[in-house]
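dumping these here so i dont lose them again. two proteins, back to back, each one seq then structure tokens. dont judge the mess
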Amino acid sequence: MKMSRLIILVFITILGLILRLFYLDSRPVGFTWDEAALGYNAYSLLKTGKDEYGKVLPVVFKSFGDYKPGLYIYFTVPTVKFFGLNEFATRLPSAILGTLLILVVYLLTKNLYAPLLLAINPWAIHFSRGAWEANIALFLTTLAVLLFIKRRYLYSSLFFGLTFWTYQGAKMFTPLLILTLLIIYRPNIKKLILPVLLGLAMLIPLILNFGSQSGRLKVFSVFSYSGDLVRGITQRYLNHLSPKYLFMSGDWSNIRHSIPYYGYFHLPEIITILMGMIILLRANNQAAKLLIGWLLLAILPSALSRDIVSGVRSLPMLIPLVIMSGIGLSKLKFFYSPALLLSLILFVDLYFIHSPFFTAKDMLYPYKEALQIIEPYLKDYNRVIFTDKLGQPYIYTLFYYKIDPILYQSQNKFVDNANGDVGYVPSFEKFVFQKVDWRTQRGDSLTIFVGDSFELPEQDMNPVNLVRLGEVYYPSGLHALRIVALK
């Protein structure tokens, strides 16, 4: 590699790293319960070698009634060891591998434009800044493809196998992508015997746990709903190729999966992606066939789910599209650079400054502040009734108070949902997690109450023994939670 090319690649990688690490603990604002569960289970492994349920070094982790492949949690153990149990440590593995993906894309394309666009891509940045197993799986998948093309089949098999240990969506996408590679590149069968055996060996622990992994499949599968399946799947599939999804709104069905009022690609990339796609179709070589096949297959896990679009399940689309955009940009070069620079500035402004006003509620922003308000008073009260309206308050209590995993494992009271969706924990120590019923509970002395303005209405905050401990507001100024206590 020429020195000038290496310098540019280093600059691109540093730019990508900055965009993924800057304010990592607070952007996106808030912290999802899945992130809290990943972090706390890594903390539990670090302290006890067991997950929150007391299972020793599990391959698959139970989480709110769902079952998750556990590789992300194991990646998080060293970051929690080094930085402590916090948002930064929990999100750091995704940020690091999201940055390394830039280098993998360069090695895959030998084109500086594709890694540059990946470094500044809104989709890649967003999922690298949260604790998303899908982002780790994307890195592993892309690295496995690179190694396959380089005919390093044993290493390729290893990383393809690890995708199954990382993310549920890999169970569909990875086998289809491997089949596509075999059809296009037609490797020598004899050279595949050992890699295939390695891949099968890696699947054995997952197969042994398969019976307990069905958790929410029925809830999220499109096949669980009545209606015209063919029409529904087709509509979901095409939604992921729409300009609205790619360039304007991102995942409009779930604000946690994208940036409000911004697409997964910068608007000027409409031209570069179309140009790159045309060039690939005309080339009709192995690389072109792989990228087109990759793109078409990447949508399937999302199209077969209940959601009309899904930014997390369709994340593998990112790689072929960003490479197409890089091919297109290589033809336009400096002519298009000012438009992309302006788009990046607008995106950074929206993401780091304005997005909290739109996303805080969906990102469960109030939990941390509420628990910080409560903490100094816990020793003075016998019970805390904490609303469960926002969902899974127990995992935030474990996470932010760094509850000893041995203590929690001995008292775990998780209640499964009979319908297959997420369950709940009704109580732990002095915490009771339920909706606040102020009319019947306002006589409970030595109790702290955490609820919203409907559960704890301002006009009823009049008992003589009531103590106001604090209020939590969203960044927009809207009221989130009220914390009061009865002496």
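---- next one ----
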Amino acid sequence: MHSICITVPRIGPYHLARFNSAGALGEIHVVETCPVDAEYDWDEVTQTGSFARHTLFEAGSEETQSPDQIRSRMWKLLDQVRPDAVAIMGWSLCDALAALAWCSRHQVPAVVMSESQRLDHKRTFIKETIKRRIIGFYRTALAGGTPHAEYLEQLGMPRERVFLGYDVVDNFHFQSGADEARSDAVAARMRLGLPENYFLASSRFIPKKNLPGLLRAFAEYRRQSGDQAWDLVLLGDGSGKPELLAMIKILRLEESVRLPGFQQYPSLPTYYGLAGAFVHASQTEQWGLVVNEAMAAGLPVLVSQTCGCAPDLVEQGANGFTFDPEIQEEFVNRLLLLADDDSIRERMGARSREIISRWTPNRFGESLWKAGELAIELGPVSPKMVDRAILHWLSRRSA
């Protein structure tokens, strides 16, 4: 029986179901750099399950550790575990590069776990050339979905070595929690101070999430809907909050936009369950796990066409719509359509659950093991000296 080690910067709440599904199929070790990070305000996850958990630094975040410290502890831990393959999240952070360097040094095959798509950023020749050389150290890949597999192929990974299912959530958590909220909706709404009808959005308050665009479209939707207009509940927090508060005031949305703040994992299903539809308006988004969550909760979804999940999760007119985040009229028309017809929302919500049933933690576990076993079968990579030098240089740099 083979063993696979998974490396991540931090174990978050949505990781548990994934790793437990993988651990049910074979020996899994998960290495997190730190139990907290500066990007997400989740409560620290202390649970474990069918996988062995290892933490390199008990205090601080990855940003507070030097590349040499991360490399030293990562190598020591992998020396102890001695996995048959290592599945590494991404190719740019210090922990990923340290794990990849260890694999190269010890001739252990590596699997890249990626949710990058070509649309995420403006790509430059030099960076893409270096990235192709780094991808050459990986034998196989576990990707989010179709656009991510296509990008990996562009970087040199053979398509037959790419498996899908990296970006999944615990569907049961959101389905059961949403259904429970709906079973006593009046009490749940009163407890949380939620309106009877609302669109739900959930994201960090940062520029790429396009929240000002969402507010402008919502204001125009309300102007056209009149007295029948829904409210907007926007979960999250971040550096862009002052700008959003100012825009809410300018657009005169103080009475119709609710900001409950950042919500921890156990609280989320109730907000989904009481909503009428979910909206994700990002200008760029690697995947968008909140869309998985909304679909598991049985909601119709409006998703920006630039979101990585859109090609695989959104069937136009069946479980929701995609839209161009730069075209406000299109966005507003989608809001008007969903709010106007109960039967459409019910049909779309049911289809959402059907689609997301194909994207489960079990799919993650099965695809991870397929990628791991194929990597082991193919054997370790024998990189050129120049590629080893590039990896060594990158792994010594600060993130």
